[in-house]
């Protein structure tokens, strides 16, 4: 019985995580998040109404899972809607969307893989073991990707970018304190990310690892990354066994309730005091108050989760769930993990860096700086960025005002001395400009692609050639060797207060 109670809450958590992700992006970007389809991740270009339909479909599917988590027909429905969302995701796909996709696939396999065609104790064990494996692999890559030179350079590290933003947002200016935060952001993150999975792997330290994971992701949420932390809470919940979860629910009402209220209030006060007032330095929330409500709800969840994990430490130890799987389930899970691992392995094979769990790691192909894996090991070594030597005939920024895709194209393409462009973005941006103004602009471009100099006089005639329409790499890369390679998230036109996406 407790297995199914645990399972219902797990399904609701993954559905809530997806809703929190979307809600926070709407709070940050407003309607634009719901209707724009710019440089879609897997080339699925949708109209504004089409994007709205996908968002609405995913919303209804997630609400259905929260209401009826045992209705297994909702699992493939939600998976299909999330797949469409991912395929049409603009510019940069959030890594936790891939994690959510695998979790939903795991739920589908677990529910429909059995002879009964329903959720059973066996399928619950399958989901628990599968989620535990995904979390451990994700932590491995989050740590391993950071073992590159650029991440440990303070002025370039993505970690210090978040620390600097946090300190700016909260008015923290004491040099000694800022320096401590920066070093903790870089080295503390690496140490914690390697410690958590190690602690989770062993019975005697698993719950200690769970508590450390909750605290770590709560800190990340205080840096403004609530949506990622919400998904990781869902994954970490798999390490709180159904027996331990049931034991936490059965705790004494007096003292236990007091500690629960205390944990929730402390989490809530911490969020109200320390969470950033902006979504990013150049991207404030369009709707601030609803975002506060979401972040406050996350704080209450943190208090409850931490309370349950602490109580579970008093219960009899429960091992990881691998021993409860049959041979068939073991085979499926190993194949499942292999695909998930191959996705994270992308940078070391050279075929992609995006959605490979390389978030905030500074890992990139050019220049390659990993401390353990040499560039010569990469199977795919061809350059993935275009250097524009000369470009003429671009429309003015005022000519495309209101067309967000065209605005981005004009702004970035007009700065060839500042950026390299991914092959996908380069072609997409020029084709967007064909229809942005009438008549279509006559654009001349001279560029170097894969060590070959080329010129195109009539880009709308197909002179640029074919490129796989997948966002496998950041769409622009700063040419300045001292710039953080993730700075494409701060493209702000002159005189504007807000970045382009």
- Order of H and E elements: HHHHHHHHHHHHHHHEHEHEEE
Query: Which band does the percent of strand residues land in?
Result: 5-15%
Based on helices, strands and strand pairing, what is the structural class?
mainly alpha
Number of strands: 5
Protein name: HTTM domain-containing protein
Organism: Dyella flava
Keywords: Membrane, Transmembrane, Transmembrane helix
Transmembrane segments: 6-27, 48-67, 73-91, 98-118, 124-144, 184-202, 214-236, 256-272, 292-312, 332-351
Which features would summarize this protein structure in a list?
501 residues, mainly alpha, five-stranded antiparallel β-sheet
Describe this entry's structure for a reader.
With 501 residues, the protein is mostly helical. Helix content is 56%, strand content 5%. It has 17 helices and five strands. It has helices at residues 2-29, 31-35, 48-67, 74-87, 95-112, 121-144, 158-170, 175-201, 206-222, 226-237, 242-249, 253-274, 288-312, 327-344, 346-349, 404-413, 423-436, and strands at residues 385-392, 419-422, 444-449, 452-456, 476-478. It has a five-stranded antiparallel sheet. A hairpin with a 2-residue loop joins strand 3 (444-449) and strand 4. Helix 6 packs across helix 8 (175-201). The longest helix has 28 residues, at 2-29. The chain starts with a helix and ends in a 23-residue tail after the last strand.
Task: Give a summary of the structure in a few sentences.
This protein is mostly helical and 501 residues long. The protein has helices at 2-29, 31-35, 48-67, 74-87, 95-112, 121-144, 158-170, 175-201, 206-222, 226-237, 242-249, 253-274, 288-312, 327-344, 346-349, 404-413, 423-436; strands at 385-392, 419-422, 444-449, 452-456, 476-478.
